[in-house]
Amino acid sequence: MWVFVSCCWRVVCLVRLYFDVETFRHVECQAFINEKVIAIGVLEDWTPYEETSLSRECEFGIFSEWSLGDEKVVIESFYDFFRSLLSGARFLTVVGFNILKFDIPLLKQKGMEYKVASLPELNNLWRIAGLMDFFQAVLPIYGMRFKGNNLKNLIALARKVGIPVEVDIYGTGEDVTRWYMKGEYGEIEKHLKADVEALRVLDLTQSIPKILRISQKSDRDGG
């Protein structure tokens, strides 16, 4: 079941997809091993790529185990959606946080597991889209270190340099595990919605380029 929250403005053929994958694993250190995709949150944005577009609401949807029945259908439904976006848009940009290291490799793995497509076909699907990973983009701010590089801190950085980011994340990965085990699926949906909305605001306000410019200027000035 594909859940729509609001209607977007299909006025251009340049589309952005903000997305986030939530998973459950029994052993925390075993990423990708017996890891289950429990939900994928997506925000489909057809508005002009400018800050004024934030006044327009876009489609938010969730592919979840609790609404679709199992992981297999979640993965199949997501790829049906993804393919339809690729075929309907002149160009699709996929935006996320840590998607190059985690979300996309995991979705390729699951696509193969459930025979959605072969590995070359899955690689090609993700190649067609433009990919923007904010985790990678802000590494220079952290001296190319991973510690402290998370979405919550990126929002705080944007606010610190005067960018009006009026969204907050809701909960953490640890919270998602707890909510899932307790069957509090609505909380996971709130978490996903907050994450993808934050990604959209950070993107349309050009937060990362602005933070980088201010950081570089501060370095040159010795601040």
Topology record:
Layout: E1 14-24, E2 36-45, E3 59-64, H1 65-68, H2 71-88, E4 91-96, H3 99-113, H4 119-128, E5 130-133, H5 134-137, H6 151-160, H7 173-182, H8 185-204, H9 207-220
Helix pairs in contact: 3-4, 7-8
Q: Top keywords for this entry?
A:
5 strands; disordered N terminus; 223 residues; 47% helix; 5-stranded mixed sheet; single chain; 9 helices; Nucleotidyltransferase, domain 5
Describe what is shown at a glance:
With 223 residues, the chain is α/β, with parallel strands linked by helices. Helices cover 47% and strands 17% of the residues.
Domain count, please report it: 1
SSE class: alpha/beta
Radius of gyration: 18 Å
Which segments are poorly predicted (pLDDT under 50) over 5 or more consecutive residues? 1-12
Order of helices and strands, N to C? EEEHHEHHEHHHHH
Q: What distance lies between the first and last C-alpha atoms, to the nearest angstrom?
A: 52 Å
Q: Considering the protein shown, what is the CATH homologous superfamily?
A: Ribonuclease H-like superfamily/Ribonuclease H
Mean pLDDT: 90
Percent helix range: 40-55%
Q: What is the name of the CATH architecture? A: 2-Layer Sandwich
Strand ordering within the main sheet: 3-2-1-4-5
Taken from the alpha-carbon principal axes, the silhouette is globular
Strands, total number? 5
Strand content: 15-25%
The largest β sheet comes out as: 5 strands, mixed
